[in-house]
Structures are given as C-alpha cells and as structure tokens.
Amino acid sequence: MKGGKIMTKTELIDKIASGAGLSKADAARAFDATLDSIKAALKKGQKVTIVGFGTFGVTKRKARKGRNPRTGQVINIPAAKTPKFTAGKALKDAVKK
C-alpha cells in the first residue's frame, strides 16, 4: 500500500465506538453483526448495496486451464464464486479529495 497506514479491525471498532457514542464492546458486536449479515446475504447469492458507499456481490469464475509457475505443468483451475466490492460514487469522490 503506497504511503498509507493500514487500519486494523480494532482501530476501526475504536472509531465506530467514539463516533457513535458506544462502548467498544457494543461497537464490536455491531460491527461483527454487520459483517455476518453481509456474508450471509452473499452466501445466498444476494447483493448488498449501501447507498453512498458501495455494493457487495458475488461473481462466478469459469473453470480454466493454468500453469504451475514452478514446473510449467498445465493444471485445471475449477470454477469458483468470489466476493466482489464495487465502490459507490460518494466513496470514490471522497477518496479523490
């Protein structure tokens, strides 16, 4: 990451607690519940849209051929579902400033 510090989960929970006037324990429970709800929705194949922030979704990757970088041997890479996040306009604009 260029020139930036990584914010940890603990630091984020501290910011949520102070910003919302919650205890750290309550903020941690709320944060974990939010993440669990997003994961559950994605597992069901649903999108989660947070207006002004972005959209979480699931994309499907087709099965494909690849190469083992060590041996050069052709390998089969199975189809997979992967999580995806698309930033909303407000988030993009906030980052630009």
Automatic annotation (TrEMBL):
UniProt xrefs under CDD domains: HU
SUPFAM superfamilies: IHF-like DNA-binding proteins (SSF47729)
InterPro entries, sorted: Hist_DNA-bd, Histone-like_DNA-bd_CS, IHF-like_DNA-bd_dom_sf
One Pfam family in the UniProt entry: Bac_DNA_binding
Keywords: DNA condensation, DNA-binding
GO BP terms, alphabetized: chromosome condensation; DNA replication initiation; DNA-templated transcription
Single GO molecular function: DNA binding
Superkingdom of the source species: Bacteria
A GO CC annotation given for this chain: cytosol
Family: Belongs to the bacterial histone-like protein family.
Its job: Histone-like DNA-binding protein which is capable of wrapping DNA to stabilize it, and thus to prevent its denaturation under extreme environmental conditions.
Protein name: HU, DNA-binding transcriptional regulator, beta subunit
Organism: Candidatus Sulfobium mesophilum
Gene, per the UniProt record: hupB
